[in-house]
Amino acid sequence: MHSRTAVVAALALSTVALVAAPARADSLGDMGLAVEGGLGVNSFTNAHARDFIGPGASYTVRVLLGTHTTLGYELGYLGSVAGITALGLQQGAVLYSNGAEAAVRYSPIPDSAVQPYALAGVAWRHYFIGRADFNSSVANNSDNVLEVPLAVGLGYRTDSGFLVDARFAYRLAAGSDLLGGPGGGGPGLDNWNLGLKLGWAL
Questions:
Q1: pTM, entire model
Q2: Looking at the domain covering 2-20+32-201, what would its CATH class be?
């Protein structure tokens, strides 16, 4: 677990270094700016985690810098909601999450109307259980995890600036104690997400 956390942390720090690299001041006006929001579906990849948590819905709002350049940057809010069941947890409980993400986006043909791209980033996510008046299960009431999202997507941009963006992401997670009980640990919270976003280039 410690070696995995170290790997995820190293990937996260590498991404932060790229995101933090300043763009040239004289090029900011030409990079392009956009705002997107959308919905998706997500699920955990660990079979033991899926024994407790079902597939859920996700939502996000993002700001993109670099819609006209090969290398761009994203800052986003992300959230999710899914059902969770465990012995000792009130029936009908819901697992919520929210968090923040920074990412670097590579688009090989940024001036095209159709834009395939790849993305890598770093995210912080807070999980918490709601709609439960009692919980004596192995599921802790809340947890904070570090994530490294890796994604591929396909965007479409009209001449007027309207954006459609479909994306598949795999998110490596470290530091997860959600399903480990009072002693911590438990199955990992790596997850995948398939989403569709709409937006506008400013």
A1: 0.86
A2: mainly beta
